[in-house]
Amino acid sequence: MKSYIFLLSILYFLNLKSSLNAQNAPLEIAEKVTIQSKVLNESRELLIYKPKTASKKTVKYPVIYIFDGESLFLPTIGAVNFMSYSSEIPQMPEAIVVGIVNKDRMRDMPVPQRFEKVDGAAMFLQYLEKEVITYINQNYTTNGLNVLIGHSQGGTFVTYAAAERPKLFPFVLALDAPMTINPTLANAFLEKISPACKMRYVSAETVFGWRDLWKMEGACFSATQLAVENETHESMPYKSIYDGLKILFKDYVLTEKDLSLTKMEAYFSSLTEKYNAELPIPPSPLLGSASRKIAQSRKKEAIELITYYEKLYGQNERTLNLLAQANAITKEPDPRVDYYLNLPDPSAATIAPFLGKWKGIVEVPGGQNMNVQFEIKKENGKYILAGETGPEGAKWKTQNDILHVTEKGELIWGRKGSGGVYVSIGKINKNGLLEGKEDLIGVSPPPGFGPFVPNTFEFERIQ
Q1: Cβ atoms within 10 Å of 459's Cβ, excluding its own
Q2: pLDDT 10s digits, 1-29
Q3: pTM
Q4: Which of 215, 248, 281 is a domain's end point?
């Protein structure tokens, strides 16, 4: 039997305002499912969240099983939504979230002192494996990657579940699990977990945790002991769920924006092999890269990305708009983009006059001037230009994607951005100042906007 949960108060928290058709309309984010457990001989409730793209059957998802579902289900959905959708480069894959609601917590997830003396945890694990996971796999498109999250006694239980079923539960996040209360139990878990080389285990700790019993540094699997400060045992899950998921999926994040479809396919194919679970390219990098390709007049590449997206996630208003923009492209890409991105690095002799720290102002015609400070130095065997730029009170760090010195002694540096490349070309004048122009190359201005007017700069050496 299913009933829908309408959750109004977390609208801002989940950043899903755009999904409402009318002001103050109810927001349906989850299902409440009641199943009759033969293992436990009682009815049990599950809270189930499906990803935004789950209407298509072409994508399979990891499943996050969160215990104490009545209190930790919403924070988990918030973290998963933020990490999956808030950036063009997601921090983790879209995921199904299953909140397991308590009925008899002390029986199902005993305190460590009683863990070895009762069979409640073993029965609860059987319920989880045979009934809950079976139900989810039969009714939703899953990829076999099961993630367990548990707090306090729940943290002890998820560690126990991972020790007993390491292949079934390869990703585990234990939140302030009181392992030190029963060192014998902790050591028994360690003996079973250590050989599980595919497992990723995170222990987030505020009051309890493994503490000095932690002996996983030399283990062949990925294990992290995470200190969570300025929180209580009761408050630490909210922050730790986000931090823990970030560690579990630390290698999921793409290295850069604006990748080709071929490179993205190769990257997520390698993750599929590493995670032993099918992981498709997520939605936002596909359409984000398509937008940049359109700005660069790379028609074929843009259409490939949009078509790939529609094959996985279906057609929508944004894909139709992007496809129309791509099909309207009539000119060729600016060849200067590839030219600048492929310039060779400078030699020690040619870069020598420019080494050191510089500061000055970039004058922006019709805009706000930028204060800039940077250093040209050698780092890890390569010359780089790194610094800060931005208007007063709003600076951000930058690092070059281009650094080259011409035969005429001109310094060329630049970075990718806005679909093209910002290229600065400067030369040291007779007063020792580095002066020149910054241009935006390879981007077609939006309709109604004129061409980009180059910025000018003048920098003085400060060290």
Answers
A1: 21
A2: 444 333 323 322 333 333 333 344 444 67
A3: 0.81
A4: 248
